[in-house]
Design goal:
The protein is of the alpha/beta class. It contains 14 helices and 15 strands. The chain has two domains: about 140 residues, Alpha-Beta Complex (Aspartate Aminotransferase, domain 1), CATH 3.90.1150.10; about 280 residues, Type I PLP-dependent aspartate aminotransferase-like (Major domain) (Aspartate Aminotransferase, domain 2), CATH 3.40.640.10. About 40% of the residues lie in helices and about 15% in strands. Helix 4 runs antiparallel to helix 11.
């Protein structure tokens, strides 16, 4: 592609595509990708970058997998689509359901398929409310969510996203979604000055349930490890405590595993790390490694039974044209076979250790306030001063991203934190390059900020 063609594409893109989280100024100079192979993306100018966030935490098996293209082509040639509304089914979705239930928490029993993480969460909330409605407790409708949560961009999932910028301009929001503090020890209002989390953040959820009245609360929804909110792993006691609180108050626990599912934390699903089983879990992203869109919510036997036993005049009336899409399900099955053939869950644990150890060494830098992570997810928080944890100022995140990009690494930031979640097939050399590039990028940006 010559320079004129590239310029024309870039001009048309910014003029006519409304990108997610769009602001015209931010989109100037966007990279136009053309190819991908393993952990590397290449743009139309032939420049290559390590895709250090697996694109959007989703391309787990890496780019350029012919097996997945072939699985899609085979299924499309045989049966690209048939509908899965009541009375109809297809073979790949039945097989995929068996696979998912064999991998998910032992209490899981029923799967509803959709297209995106937002839809899966939106419908999981409906499933939670429906469960209580059909159980004779229709007043249990409130949903508790956490600060820094990201659960999606539909109306209800915006309402349960705990980051203010996602709400601007979209009100009024639906009622009955209640925000609580999260498990972010570094900035915790209760225990930031103590060596470890005291779980006051979990206990406050119980206080909120009591304040609202347990009889009005349907569910607590949370990501096992915050993703877009800044890669925030919880204290090991946090999820077991949440489970106890939900059980004690007869409230459903929804785990949003849209990012953490499928090996990201070094386990198939993250709550395995702490021996907890949710009532409902949501999945998307790595289920197909994003080769085609697919998501789902999966319910425990207890919730499933209520759906199975629903009276005819109060059916579980949710819909999704592409539910259980045969091509998406065939790709997911093939994708999960790659995980097993290549031992990618174990690999994520091993690579994650290397990534977190490497980034952990950056703690010695005066401008690194915190390094946190779990499995193959990590974040480095840059600060003007280690003690005060003060910010280096607005725009520092964009500068860090630009300095990383110069060094052949692309990823995203949340505030002053640089986030990492590379593909599960990333090589050790590429992990080391991410670590070294991060240290150098921080040095460069801090030196520029401190320049008189
Ligand atoms: C934890 C989590 N849940 C839900 C979503 C929404 O998924 P989607 O963008 O596919 O709607 C995301 C997206 O990044 C996510 O990170």
């Amino acid at each position: 592609m010559n320079a004129d063609e590239i310029d024309a594409l870039a001009a048309y893109d910014i003029a006519h595509i409304i990108h997610p989280q769009f602001h015209r100024a931010d989109h100037e100079g966007a990279i136009i990708f053309e190819r991908g192979e393993g952990a590397v993306l290449t743009d139309v100018q032939g420049r290559s970058y390590i895709d250090a966030l697996s694109s959007l935490w989703n391309v787990a098996v890496g780019h350029g997998r012919r097996e997945l293209a072939e699985a899609a082509a085979e299924q499309m040639a045989q049966l690209a689509f048939s509908n899965s509304y009541t009375g109809y089914a297809n073979v790949p979705s039945i097989r995929l359901t068996g696979k998912l239930l064999s991998l998910a928490y032992p209490n899981m029993s029923g799967v509803f398929y959709a297209n995106s993480g937002s839809e899966a969460n939106e419908m999981a909330i409906k499933a939670a409310r429906y469960f209580w409605y059909a159980s004779g407790k229709p007043e249990k409708t409130r949903v508790i969510y956490r600060q820094e949560a990201y659960h999606g961009s539909t109306m209800a999932t915006t309402a349960i996203t705990g980051m203010a910028p996602f709400h601007t301009g979209f009100g009024p929001e639906p009622p009955d979604f209640i925000q609580v503090p999260t498990c972010y020890h570094y900035r915790c209002q209760w225990c930031a000055d103590q060596p470890a989390c005291t779980l006051a953040c979990a206990d406050t959820i119980e206080a909120v349930i009591e304040r609202e009245g347990a009889g009005t609360v349907a569910a607590v929804i949370a990501e096992p490890v915050h993703g877009a909110g800044g890669v925030i792993p919880p204290h090991p006691g946090y999820w077991p405590r949440l489970r106890e609180i939900c059980d004690r108050n007869d409230v459903l626990l929804i785990a949003d595993e849209v990012i953490t599912g499928f090996g990201r934390t070094g386990r198939w699903f993250a709550l395995e790390r702490w021996g907890v089983q949710p009532d409902i879990m949501t999945i998307a992203k790595a289920v197909t490694s994003a080769y085609v869109p697919l998501s789902a919510f999966i319910v425990s036997g207890r919730v499933h039974e209520v759906i199975l036993d629903a009276p005819a005049d109060a059916k579980f009336m949710i819909g999704c044209t592409n539910a259980a899409h045969p091509t998406a399900c065939a790709v997911a099955l093939r994708n999960l076979r790659i995980f097993e053939d290549e031992g990618l869950v174990e690999r994520a644990e091993r690579l994650g250790q290397r990534l977190n150890d490497g980034l952990g060494r950056l703690r010695e830098m005066p401008s690194v306030g915190e390094v946190r992570g779990l499995g193959l997810m990590a974040a480095v928080a840059v600060a003007a001063d280690k003690q005060s944890r003060a910010s280096l100022g607005a725009g520092v995140g964009a500068k860090l991203l630009s300095a990383l990009r110069e060094r052949g690494v692309i990823t995203r930031v949340k505030g002053d934190s640089i986030l990492f979640a590379p593909p599960l097939v990333t090589s050790e050399e590429q992990i080391d390059h991410i670590v070294n590039a991060t240290g150098d990028a921080i040095d460069e940006v801090v030196a520029a900020v401190n320049w008189p």
